[in-house]
Amino acid sequence: MIVWLNGAFGAGKTAAARELVELLPDGNLFDPGLIGAGLRALLPRKRLDEVPDCQDLPAWRRLVVDTAAAVHGEVGGTLVVPMTLLRQEYRDEVFGGLAARRIPVRHVLLDVEETILRERAARRGEAPGDGGAGTAARGRCAEPVRRPPAHRRVPDWLRADAHTVDATLLTPRQTAEKVAEAIRAGRGACDIVQTPEPTAETVAAGVLLFDEADRVLLVDPTYKPGWEFPGGVVEPGEPPARAGLREVAEELGLRLDTALRLLVVDWEPPRPPGYGGLRLLFDGGRLTTTAARDLLLPGAELRGWRFATEREAAAMLPPVRMERLRWALRARERGVTLNLEAGTPVGA
Prior knowledge:
- It is a single chain.
- Helix 1 crosses helix 9 and helix 4 (58-75) packs parallel to helix 5.
- By secondary structure, the protein is α/β, with parallel strands linked by helices.
- The longest helix is centred in the first third of the chain and has 18 residues, at 58-75.
- It has helices at residues 13-23, 33-42, 45-49, 58-75, 88-100, 114-124, 135-138, 156-161, 172-184, 240-252, 289-293, 310-314, 319-334, and strands at 2-6, 27-29, 78-82, 105-111, 163-166, 202-210, 216-221, 231-233, 261-268, 277-286, 302-308, 338-341, 344-345.
- The protein starts with a strand and ends with a strand.
């Protein structure tokens, strides 16, 4: 398994991690900051200048997952990973990727009072361009770099997602002992659906559901970044519309008794590491207020849902999904079915 030590910059994650590997059976340290250092050496300066942090590079997040899985397969046991992840979408992408590789994650937040964090930041100094010394700096990108304040507030989602250890008055050894005790008690387990990564092109069926104000229902997956439509991959030999109905029942506890109408067929081109394929969006009709109130989410797969206007959805969905939604809404208004390629209508 992987024990991910999260927390604000300056919370003592690396020092505690070094102690923790001595307390856990077959414990090994895995520092994602080294991947940031590698990308800083490999990528052109122009690309590095485009992002304030290596975590903002899709390559960093992908390599963290792939490298952690490779190291875990090589040494087994428990990997202890000290790395700040303050953006929920990055947590979803990294932890979801590890879950897809059948590697369980224990998520632990080291919480330290803000005054202590400020004192540590003052002692160590926060001069930009420190040459990559230290885990946090190795995770940054182009230099000189403006490092986030060590006392940056830990977001509420992180406190809810991870098991919290108050390390304000603890030494690194005492912190590690607290974490080891929590791990042995089964705390911090991330219950994420283990969705295997595709190995070829896929067909996926999504279902658009609307409220009485014609807002569309979106769901928030735990295993990948960004919001999504209810739906999923069509199984071999399964009709796409039936797959959409099945996914709605599994994800929302909702059994639709109306036939689905196809709105768009979108060919998604392969973009490594993705394989692309056909993406279908169906109209599932309107939900009553009572039906919406009774929706049930599988905690291992979805953490939330909400109805959104088209404008609100544009701020929630990744661009490729938003283009698909935009054309699906136009098709619904016109009573037609649209054929898309990479989000653009063809043959119309």
